[in-house]
Amino acid sequence: MSVVSNVILNADDELRYPTSGELESMRSFFGTGAQRIRVAGILAENEKRIVDRAVGRLWQRRPDFIAPGGNAYGQRERALCIRDYGWYLRLITYGLLCGDKDPIESIGLIGVREMYNSLGVPVPGMVTAIECLKDASLALLDNDEANQAAPYFDYIIQAMSS
Description:
Layout: H1 3-13, H2 20-31, H3 33-45, H4 47-61, H5 75-98, H6 102-109, H7 112-119, H8 123-138, H9 143-161
Helix pairs in contact: 3-5, 3-9, 4-5, 4-8, 5-6, 8-9
């Protein structure tokens, strides 16, 4: 949920006007809006490039994944892995656009550990995959843009690591 939605819902729940602190958080949210939109656009427009780089780096770091018996061995398994990369990148853009990690949590992380465990996908391997996705994405951004995007990747990495 965006900062604006949170402020309005909290104020309404308490039958009050937004506080000065809440209004300041909205001002900050609007002040970074153009940059957040630009970063989300860069990631979306470069999805294939980012995913290709991240996948290549993952196979270098974890060749066991594509070796016989690995979780990404075979055409179908690799395609599913690559699909997940695009899905996580899209989640990152959702977080960027609303300036909040809530969509990442509610859409993408609830039950993710259980899902991967049930499919026999090693969660530490997914952490490595998201790290590769982060590196490939941030390489396309300037420092300010990377600083804007990095916390969303870190949030997924942390959630999968715990």
